[in-house]
Amino acid sequence: MTTAPIGPMEECVAVETDEEREERNSATDVMKAMNRNALIEDLNRNFVAMAITKSHFNWKKKRPNINLCCLNLSFPQKRAKGQFLFFKVCEHLNLMEKDYFGLFYMDNHAQTCWLDPTKDIKRQIRNNNWQFVFNVKFYPPDPSLLTEDITRYLLCLQLREDVASGRLPCSFVTHALLGSYTLQAEFGDHEPDQPRTLGLGQLTFAPNQNKDMEEKILELHKSLRGMTPAQADAQFLENAKKLSMYGVDLHHAKDSEGVDIMLGVCANGLLVYKDRLRINRFAWPKILKISYKRNNFYIKIRPGETEQFESTVGFKLQNHRCAKRLWKVCVENHSFFSPTKARFLTLGSKFRYSGRTQAQTRTASSLIDRPAPNFQRTSSKRISRSLDGGNTHTHAEVAPMRVHGDNIYVRHSNLMLEDHDKTQDDVLKHQASISQLKRSFMEAPPPSPPQPNQWEKRLTSSPATTILEIEETVVVQEVSIAPKPGRVAVTAGPPAGPPAQQEALEQEVTVGQEVVAAEEAKAAKQESVSSESESEEEAEYHPNVSICHTKIPEEEEEEEEEQADKTAGAPPLVDEVSAAVEESAPADARDEKNTEGEHQAEKDGSGEPAHAAAPNGPRVPEGSASGAEQDQEPKVNGEARPVEAEHRPQVICCSEPPVVKTEMVTISDTFAAQKTEIATKEVPIVHTETKTITYEAAQLDGNGDSEPGVLMTAQTITSESLCTTTTTHITKTLKGGLSETRIEKRIVITGDCDIDHDQALAQAIKEAKEQHPDMSVTRVVVHKETELAEEED
Amino acid sequence: MAGLMSGFGHYTHAVVRGIPASLAKEALRSCQAEVDLAEARREHEEYVEVLGTRLGLEVVELPADESLPDCVFVEDAAVVCGDTALITRPGAESRRRETETMKSALKELNLNIVEMTDEKATLDGGDVLFTGREFFVGLSKRTNQRGAEILADAFKDYAVSTVPVLEGLHLKSFCSMGGPGLIVIGSSEPAQKALKIMQQMSDHRYDKLTVPDDLAANCIYMNLPNKGHVLLHPTAEQYPESAKEDCRGNHAGCSGLMLKSLGF
User: Which keywords does this Swiss-Prot/TrEMBL entry list (chain B) (predicted)?
Assistant: First the structure.
């Protein structure tokens, strides 16, 4: 396969939405840049991953050569996961706080996609174009909370590029100020004897850079004397983080009336823009469900104080891929920035955010115990000395060499080592002088005419875009009945009936059942579980905001495929019921294309009995894993992936339970939505009190962990009533000839009143036993999360 | 200023304009109450006196123009934030020329002038609420989407959110900033509704101070170099009716800071 260095940071622009991207030059530029840099070819599975280019500037004239370091890795195994590469790159960069970053690549549609760490690289890169770009994936809202300077430095590199390219718009003054910090960080104190021009013209600080701006930058730079590089970076970030578009990932969309708008995904939630004006905002805690169906993207909004019902807001994306991509970005951002440690119960969908949340990341970072690493900044002292024009950057030389064997080599151009002993105090000390500096700066106002185009530029490439190709998506919510040779077919029973899986288990079957009842104080009613089911082809993500359980009932397979439409049923009412049942027969055929399987599944599926939400008796196979270990889940799925049903013609996947309630989705006018009083307070942080009771049967638990087995099927059913959400995840795993079915059921009860834990537990066990008499309950977890009273208003 | 976006910065200058005699008869008015010109002028003088003498601001007094009956309401003619002054294009045609004098005055203060030349755009400064962290622009009879877009372009560092103003003249007819992070809001339904929208649209949290009468929510908050936080608000006695003609002024904080205004 072709190996190629990744483009320089500057070129590493994550492009936003697909189509627009195609038209956009910048996208093409990225591609070109990548190709230009594709210097290494290695057919022997060696591939080169370009780590972040350590160049902060757009070296206008020497762009193509910016790659400063290449990482040449030999591929240890065919099936190396994205993580492998990502970790290698981080290792190379000496980066420990890696969770904010990611690698992306360009897919066949010229869209940037984040490399999914949990999946095989090979499976994700379909076009043999092995070029990756290291990029910031989640912009930390407060960079000062990052533990290491090196992390801040890398974030600075990204932001310098964001600013210079116009993706992160800012005023003249801000451009100048940020530019001065960059100069200070990279070149140190201003040296009076330096030629005035400094060759600044060769550095790009802003899209509309001009002499005036360069003058300002220099002027400001002078006043930063004495500031260490780390301090300059910190100041740079302090200012950048306040910019309104900091970390906002924009996607083109249309509202219900076909008006062009932009959806911005960020740490706080989803923003709606119309012609660069913010016209609406949905904070993450407000969003109950995120889903997409074909090219529609929906969010279900928690009812406001005065409203009784939830509302669903829909947007149209350019196509299915765009919708899916936006959905993923939302799921990932929601997950990452979720205030509570979300325990995701990712059901069914292959896609989930597998990384840490920001909170976890911070905790982990606080444990970093190493001396501040020395790292090299792009511009060395040397460079700064010859700045006056020479610009003799070694960039040009970076031609990566070809490496044979298993070695990893890193090549740097002349990078400079810098000292790292600045402390926060030092930084503070500088503030005063800085403010003074700014004051004086203000006296001479520079011209900065508004530049409408900037806005568009941002769109071109937004680093935050997340697109994962999910090749192996398992069709969630489908029930596949695959009578296997020798194996028993699995039948899914209607809500009432026990999930058919059992039948399949002729052999030793270990049934694990997990009931998780989470109660939350909030909604008012406490109702019985309704059995409404909802099955959709499209994916959904339900952040149970208060509790933060995430359910992703389903996901579609390939982006390429044109999926059959599935029906989505969601009760318009308060809670949604979604049921996803997934089941698969033992898969012998590993090579099958999932896609196919899926398709088939879908088609046939209609006939399937609806397991639909057996409100009570969802079961989850071991493989699917209990929600707790979300991290492992992906793996499981990953393995399962190859499986898919092809060999068995009998595999029937039912995407829709017989009784499907069709959801009425209101595509509401954003402006109208705005008028309604949606939540008054967005409390980004939900204070909760939690209590967890776990019951675990001593017995056959081990099986799940011992050997992974082959995941044959997995299905998820979610049902909801007014204040109860039941999610059932059923997994069938084939282990050494034995098939095992595991049912995991999660019940989330949302209510005002206090719920008796013990009773809930007993009830859960009882119901489980009744529904699946032939299975045993192995684990029951009762998790209670109480939202502490919110103050205010 | 200590950061590009350091909230309100410091107020150093105030721009005001005299009251023309034509105000009484020709000014645009939402209610038909009699205007006591002499009283209005007296109040205005008092206002200028407070700004200049008591608060120590450098007051730039622009002469009244009889052909511009509404010219005293300077806040509508320009929006100043940081080093930039956006000269507006007032929604009322009869007021467009008010910006000319304002523009030259602000130019002299060394502000970076941005003009709204698009003929489809209208914007009254009275619809622009700057909170220190972001802008809210009321879409009203006087301000349209295009005007708001131009404002967003002029102040790129900040988020600019639109708020429908369904009743009343301007967004700031019923609200204003009472300090950093504090919105003073009237208690009428439209006012409360607008507040909710603003809260929903913002990434920041604001405290609110609800006052019984919408008009009483019309204050001027200033951060003065030597005096700290100052809130200029209608007095109790002044309030009910007289306040109507009273506080309309505009002050520009020039050394890089906000120019906030009040008005209704």
Answer: Hydrolase
